[in-house]
């Protein structure tokens, strides 16, 4: 069962979650996000359709809620905060945590997969791990 109205309107995927994760720790980050479906500012304005409203703030609320409620092991949480909250590269996270870069990569992939699964109201399985994130050496 989806956890919010935003989840009912669209399903969450790995790129969306990775894009929104920094907002879990820094509310001001939301003001720097760009809505990829929004038309260019110089385009003519049409009458607004409330059925197609902006769901950005609902997605941010979902990310924050999921960060607090979802089961994410401590090792994965540490890697996620360092990567998406602090902007560290995988090799820097490995030095900070004292683990190989590959271990950091695995923790990030599993952590984001757990968040995506939770947001979509699904159980976390190895299926969520098979779709890896970008390499940040």
Name the poorly predicted regions: 5-9, 133-137
How helical, in percent, are the residues? 40-55%
Query: What is the CA-atom radius of gyration, in angstroms?
Result: 16 Å
Average pLDDT metric: 79
Count of runs of 4 or more consecutive helical residues: 7
Class from helix and strand fractions:
mainly alpha
Taken as a percent bin, the fraction of beta residues is: under 5%
Shape: elongated
The H-and-E topology, N to C, reads as: HHHHHHH
Total strands: 0
Distance between the termini: 36 Å
Summarize the main sheet.
none
Name a few traits of the molecule.
single chain, 137 residues, mainly alpha, 0% strand, elongated, disordered C terminus
In short:
The protein is mainly α and 137 residues long. It is 50% helix and 0% strand.
């Amino acid at each position: 069962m989806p956890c919010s109205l935003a989840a009912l309107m669209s399903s969450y995927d790995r790129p969306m979650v990775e894009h929104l994760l920094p907002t879990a720790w820094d509310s001001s980050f939301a003001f720097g996000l760009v809505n990829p479906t929004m038309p260019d500012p110089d385009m003519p304005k049409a009458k607004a359709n409330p059925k197609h409203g902006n769901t950005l703030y609902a997605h941010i609320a979902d990310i924050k809620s999921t960060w607090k409620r979802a089961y994410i092991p401590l090792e994965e949480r540490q890697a996620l905060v360092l990567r998406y909250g602090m902007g560290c590269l995988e090799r820097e996270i490995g030095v900070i945590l004292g683990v190989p870069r590959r271990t950091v990569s695995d923790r990030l992939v599993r952590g984001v997969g757990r968040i995506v699964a939770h947001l979509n109201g699904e159980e976390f399985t190895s299926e969520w791990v098979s779709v890896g994130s970008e390499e940040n050496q």
